[in-house]
Write a structure and sequence with these properties.
Blueprint (H helix, E strand, L loop, with lengths): L14 H7 L5 H15 L6 H8 L3 H13 L4 E2 L4 E2 L11 H7 L4 H10 L1 H14 L5 H12 L5 H13 L5 H13 L5 H24 L9 H13 L4 H15 L4 H14 L4 H14 L15 H11 L1
Antiparallel strand pairs: 1-2
Length: about 325
Amino acid sequence: MPKFNCNIGFIPVSADFIEDLMPAANGAYVKVYLLALSLAVGGRSMTTGEIASRLNLLESDVVNALDYWNKNGALRYDKENVLFGDASPDTSPTHAEKETTNKKSIEEIAEEMTSNKALADLCTLSQEILGKPLRNRDLETLYWFYDELGLSPEVITMLLEYCVSKDKRSMGYIEKVAMSWHKNGIITIDAADKYITDEKEKSGYFYSLRKLFGINDRSFSKTEETYLKTWRDEYGMDENMVGLAYEYCVMQTNKLSFPYMNSIIKRWSELGITTVAQATQDHEDFKNKNKQNALNVYNDDNVDYDELERIMRDKM
């Protein structure tokens, strides 16, 4: 019996990964993905620590990268195994494809989408928005949004534009957003418009503060987001006010401390302080009145902020 062997010297990287997933990803995460794919193709094993050493990264970076790609559907990672193939973006059938395939063939779907003017226009717009021709699986997914989730062609168009604005063109990602919209009752033009407007406002607020805080390699945690939403929505503080609180926080603690900043911002809110000028004057007045008192919100050397932050996280 002959033995068959092939040393191709390269690894197969899907077009979906290159076009849809890679552009928005951290460069270190791409390095981890490519090495992991190479290991999988060769049937080799390597610990996350060994991968980190090979790529000159921290092991936590490797774990975060695998979690990131797992979340985005590029692979499947369960802390013990990394699986490609049926979990990769170019071969894994989406929920929409599974559901739709059981009901109508692609020929039937294509016929309905061309005979219905609204759906035909949706196909044309979808190609323009996504910047690429629609494949059969894309048509199936779009039809599933319309037929199963009850989204109108107009809402589907808004969905696509929203995802592309976030540099997400993978149909798998778009499907997850569509299911989330459906679950949360975002099925009308007005509801979608309100959601997108709110998300843009939040992203701008969060993005500017993330840059201000020097957080460039991760998103805010749920606890941190809760603080930010409280400062913006409950206390009415804009980025400039939060930035000033951050400045006072670093001056006193030499680090970013959300609980300490919260104590400052909460005080401003209680005093009706809403501008940088008012807050700056309050800071000066407070220092002058409390020169003999080391225990105050602007100057407190006797508080364990790490412990305070742990307590606040538990509460929130």
